[in-house]
């Protein structure tokens, strides 16, 4: 009896809860927070499979993504029940997601018409080249005045164009008015609010601003941009603010999580915007850097979009309510950060886990002059150079896999330094410290290296799930929910850890200059004009003579074996 009373009184003390679906490139999570203290109560995570059907192609299965969300919700609800926490206390759900990743599905059957094309994917390289060649002066920034973005493989419009041109099912569904386009947020919200039986087809301003079809000044789809890419506007989701009730959850009552049926989905932010909100960067000039699959530095620029002269993107940071003003951000995007760990693990086999990478790198404490530019998907900010490819240089007979591990961590830090420099030049006000979050921040060596290479302190919150927290805050603050106050005086104090620079600036500058030299060597490796390989397919490696390419691949494999065998 006492136990039950204690449990029920404990439940009352918790107050309203808010949940977040965090659907990232490599995993899906469902997390539940206390709206009064921002404390994380429980969560569950499921890895997502990526497939690489051809060189440069990256895909994910939309059904697997959806199933992973259901599984995470179910498991988290089980964990909450075990903790004696009443799941009917969950008052709202927010969604945050990998941005730009592109899906098309049939609104009548609810079936995806192709795999999701992931943001990292390079298949649209020749399309991008063609589009840039059509612009006056071959200018990749031709649409930047409306979109804030360069014409690049990174964004959704070119991926959607590829699907319409190359996948019969997609083309047929568009012609017969059955097609729906969306980024991952739209797919999840549509499915979770009923799918083919009345699902809500919407997106928020932050995700829309990454498609190249959205005008960041009018805050809506732009008919001229849609015409430029040949996209019919009827397939696009309705654009909403980042914090409002979009629809209600529909979950089968036989599931443990059936109790969530009827709960509003009331927050939606692209993952990098969600992290900015979760880090409480609400003032002009505040910034955060997220270390996930890629690396993303965002700086709040307030109510006005600021155009970059140094290769950064102008993006919508958030719009926290239908009648609230939009806030903008400058963004430095790096394609490969955590993905380099996965590459060392899955492709080279020199580590078994990300924890092992930190141990290996710490065992030598230096890259011994080895530099690794992981330009697997070309270079993103500040270069926007799709022809670049990954290189490892400065190798000697002394180099071993531990030095390579250290060089991989340094690469993440050097890339961050490049985008931070660009941001400081654009804003004219240098950042005095860097707020960080994301999976890789658990690597303490990486955090110390980052402080050393930037020559400013790096500040990491003790609760690393800031992306999910941002989505929960947006959901809890929505009109009609109102269980989470975003007033500055009501925001809970965040405990954090600070990493101070420990090397002298001269050494830092020397290493950074060598890095820049390595980056130059990675550029202009590929041509983007496709050449047929005999069976009608194109290859992005077609510019490299075949013998050289095969020999190079063999040498790399032998080298990798040698490195892993001699340590």
What does this structure look like?
It is found in: Cytoplasm; Mitochondrion outer membrane. One of its GO terms (biological process) is glycerol catabolic process. Residues 18-278 form the Carbohydrate kinase FGGY N-terminal domain. Belongs to the FGGY kinase family. This protein is an alpha+beta fold. The protein has a domain at 289-522: Nucleotidyltransferase, domain 5 (2-Layer Sandwich). It is 36% helix and 20% strand. The chain has 17 helices and 25 strands. The strands form 8 sheets. Strands 17-18-16-15-21-22-23 form a 7-stranded mixed beta sheet. A 6-stranded mixed beta sheet has the order 3-2-1-5-14-13, with helices on both faces. The chain is globular.
Q: How much beta, percentage-wise?
A: 15-25%
Q: Helicity range of the residues?
A: 25-40%
Structural class: alpha+beta
Main pleated sheet: 7 strands, mixed
Low-pLDDT ranges: 1-12, 530-551
**Count of helical stretches:** 17
Between the first and last Cα atoms, what is the distance in angstroms? 61 Å
Overall mean pLDDT score?
87
Strand neighbour order, sheet with most strands: 17-18-16-15-21-22-23
Strand segment count? 25
Radius of gyration: 23 Å
Protein name: glycerol kinase
GO molecular function: ATP binding; glycerol kinase activity
Pathway: Polyol metabolism; glycerol degradation via glycerol kinase pathway; sn-glycerol 3-phosphate from glycerol: step 1/1
InterPro entries: ATPase_NBD, Carb_kinase_FGGY, Carb_kinase_FGGY_CS, FGGY_C, FGGY_N, GK1-3_metazoan-type, Glycerol_kin
């Amino acid at each position: 009896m006492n136990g039950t009373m204690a449990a029920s009184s404990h439940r009352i003390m918790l107050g309203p809860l808010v949940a977040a679906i965090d659907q990232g490139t490599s995993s899906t999570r469902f997390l539940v927070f206390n709206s009064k203290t921002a404390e994380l109560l429980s969560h569950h995570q499921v890895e997502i499979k990526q497939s690489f059907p051809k060189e440069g192609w990256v895909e994910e299965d939309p059904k697997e993504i959806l199933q992973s969300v259901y599984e995470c919700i179910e498991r988290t609800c089980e964990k909450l029940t075990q903790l004696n926490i009443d799941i009917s206390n969950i008052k709202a759900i927010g969604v945050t997601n990998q941005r730009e990743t592109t899906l098309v599905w049939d609104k009548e059957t609810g079936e995806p018409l192709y795999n999701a094309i992931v943001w990292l994917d390079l298949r649209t390289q020749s399309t991008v080249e063609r589009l840039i060649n059509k612009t006056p002066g071959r200018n990749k920034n031709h649409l930047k005045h409306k979109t804030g973005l360069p014409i690049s493989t990174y964004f959704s419009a070119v991926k959607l164009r590829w699907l319409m041109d190359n996948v019969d099912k997609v083309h047929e569904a568009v012609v017969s008015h059955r097609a729906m386009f969306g980024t991952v947020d739209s797919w999840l919200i549509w499915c979770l609010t009923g799918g083919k039986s009345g699902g809500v087809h919407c997106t928020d301003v932050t995700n829309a601003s990454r498609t190249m079809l959205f005008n960041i000044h009018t805050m809506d789809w732009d008919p001229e941009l849609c015409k430029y890419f040949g996209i019919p506007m009827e397939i696009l989701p309705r654009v909403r603010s980042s914090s409002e009730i979009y629809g209600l959850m529909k979950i089968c009552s036989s599931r443990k999580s059936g109790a969530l049926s009827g709960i509003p989905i009331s927050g939606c932010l692209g993952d990098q915007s969600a992290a900015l909100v979760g880090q409480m960067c609400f003032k002009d000039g505040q910034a955060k850097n997220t270390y996930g699959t890629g690396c993303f530095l965002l700086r709040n620029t307030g109510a006005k979009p600021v155009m970059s002269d140094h290769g950064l993107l102008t993006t919508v940071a958030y719009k926290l309510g239908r009648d609230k003003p939009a806030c903008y951000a400058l963004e430095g995007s790096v394609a490969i950060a955590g993905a380099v760990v996965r590459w060392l693990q899955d492709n080279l086999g020199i580590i078994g886990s990300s924890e092992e990478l930190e141990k290996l790198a710490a065992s030598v404490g230096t890259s011994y002059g080895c530099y690794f530019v992981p330009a697997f998907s070309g270079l993103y900010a500040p270069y926007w150079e799709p022809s670049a490819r990954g290189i490892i240089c400065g190798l000697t007979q002394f180099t071993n896999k531990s030095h390579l591990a250290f060089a991989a961590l340094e690469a993440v830090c050097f890339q961050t330094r490049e985008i931070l420099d660009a941001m400081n030049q654009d804003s004219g006000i240098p950042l005095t410290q860097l707020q960080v979050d994301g999976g890789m921040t658990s690597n303490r060596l990486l955090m110390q290296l980052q402080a050393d290479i930037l020559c400013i302190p790096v500040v990491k919150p003790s609760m690393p799930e800031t992306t999910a927290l941002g989505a929960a805050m947006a959901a809890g603050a929505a009109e009609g929910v109102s269980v989470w106050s975003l007033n500055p005086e009501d925001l809970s104090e965040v405990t954090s850890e600070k990493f101070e620079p420990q090397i002298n600036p001269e050494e830092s500058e020397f290493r950074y200059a060598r890095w820049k030299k390595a980056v130059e060597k990675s550029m202009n490796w590929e041509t983007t004009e496709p050449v047929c390989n005999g069976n009608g397919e194109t290859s992005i490696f077609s510019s490299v003579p075949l013998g050289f390419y095969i020999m190079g691949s063999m040498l790399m494999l032998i080298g990798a074996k040698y490195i892993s065998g001699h340590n």
